[in-house]
Amino acid sequence: MASTSHSAHSTAQYLKVFYVLLVLTIVEVAIVYMHLPRMLLVGLLMILAVWKASLVALHFMHLKFEKTTLTLVALSPFVLCVFLILMLMPDIFPR
Amino acid sequence: MSEVAAMQAGAEPAETPLTPENWGKLGMWLFLAGDAMSFGCLIVGYGILRHASSTWPVPAEVLGINLTAVMTFLLIVSSVTMVLALAAVQDGDTAKFKKFMGFTILGGLIFLGLQAYEWTHLIGHTLPEHKLSFSKDLFATTFFILTGFHGMHVSGGVIYNSCVLAAVSRGRYGAKHVEIAGLYWHFVDLVWILIFTFVYLV
């Protein structure tokens, strides 16, 4: 399993992910300085953040190569966050 | 002892889809899921308070986002050196592992130093300039709670990684343990990516 070819391949893969993360970070900072409309800016930043976070989880934390169980464990906190937002909806948008 | 437990005592645990190859890894994932809930609550709370506030400073005007972009870069680099350290220890190359793990720890320490500098500057200069205070404004309160909670995790990660480095050097820990420590460190990086976006950029 820990053969040299496997390791060389994964090192190249890790570096590729690193460059993508780097470019996405530069794009994030650049669009903040571009004075885009607020909704567009927030939308773009959210997409970029989720994209970067999934790259870290899938490649660095090896979630891409794990059993489904671990992915389910990793996704469970989002259920709580969605519930939290739904529960607080009446406070955010009072009638 | 109950009958069922007595029956199972001698038998091998049954393989189920839930049986992990590495129990420590599952344990770390469960811890991280709980930790993600803490961070999730803080971030959602921050979002709701910000949404409900009538005034909120533009973060990019108050906080130095160029410095924090460098901090983000540092954490991403330290994540990469962490996976390279794992690849090295899996290949049995301890010298290379020590080098990359050293870089990872150094990255964490520089991050903490920059955060200490940022906080000192904010408390001493920027916040008074903008007539904001730590105790009276939700902007400052949520900022320090979120970045502080994350900084605490980085400190913990630096200590954890140092212990793993020492234990691998003595031959007590192997690739399995490095992988688990890596999961924690990448999680800290992942959370910072979210905090950087929600607190500094949005």
Task: Write the SSE topology.
The complex is a heterodimer of chains A (95) and B (202).
Chain A lengths: L3 H29 L5 H23 L7 H25 L3
Chain B lengths: L2 H7 L13 H30 L6 H4 L2 H26 L3 H36 L8 H32 L5 H27 L1
Q: How do the helices and strands follow one another from N- to C-terminus of chain A?
A: HHH
Q: What is the H/E order of chain B?
A: HHHHHHH
Number of DSSP E strands of chain A: 0
Mean pLDDT of chain B: 89
Report the sheet-strand fraction of chain A: under 5%
Average pLDDT figure of chain A = 85
> What structural class do the secondary elements of chain A suggest?
mainly alpha
Note the quaternary state here.
heterodimer
Please provide the count of β strands of chain B.
0
Major sheet size, sense and barrel closure of chain A: none
Q: What gross morphology of chain B would you assign? A: globular
Count of separate DSSP helical elements of chain B: 7
How would you explain this protein's 3D organization?
Chain A is an all-alpha fold and 95 residues long. Chain A has 2 domains: 1-61; 65-95. Chain A is 81% helix and 0% strand. In chain A, helix 1 (4-32) packs antiparallel against helix 2. The radius of gyration of chain A is 18 Å and the shape is flat. Chain B has a single domain (21-201), classed as Cytochrome c oxidase, subunit III, four-helix bundle (Four Helix Bundle (Hemerythrin (Met), subunit A)). Helices cover 80% and strands 0% of the residues of chain B. Chain B has helices spanning 3-9, 23-52, 59-62, 65-90, 94-129, 138-169, 175-201. The mean pLDDT of chain B is 89. Chains A and B meet through helix 1, helix 2 and helix 3 of A and helix 2, helix 4 and helix 7 of B.
